[in-house]
Amino acid sequence: MAAPADVCTRAVARFDESSGAYGLEVFNSTISVHPEHREIGGSGELCDMLLGRLSGYSRLSILTYLAQAQSISPSGILKNPRDLPGGLIFSAGTHALPLDDLATSYGTDTAAFLRRGVSLGGECCGYGDAAIKLHPFPRVPVVLVVRRESEEFPAGVLLLLDSTCNLHMPMDVVWSTAMISIQVML
Asked: What residues form DSSP beta bridges with 134?
């Protein structure tokens, strides 16, 4: 494994020498990764969800991000994931993201959508009828954009990723990160 100072710089993490653990901000919670003990932990409701119900998506994503993140800040250029190299995974069969569930939950209540996003450490954005930029990992933001339900159109949600996301992790892990972002909003 890389030197802790290198990992911390690349992943925007902290390292506690006394415990040998990395601290990584995932949404607005700190996840502790103890490589020597092969443990990932955290406290609070969000950490319990991430490391419990969502562990199939989160554990590999957390470890991959720590191991592979680069010292590259987000570009601010948002892309539909399908437009990124390897992004077809986002639209194929069982990998289709449950964006309709978000639309059903928030299509008539964008204020609740924004409240939930802010409670996760997200930032409101000026896209669509409501948009939130979440930070599942410091260098991998995820933007969710809601189109309100109207008489003419059903509600819809669009997920956008920073153009640099695939420099920090492979696309299947980016997909897991997107899935985590959707699930914590539901």
From this structure: 142
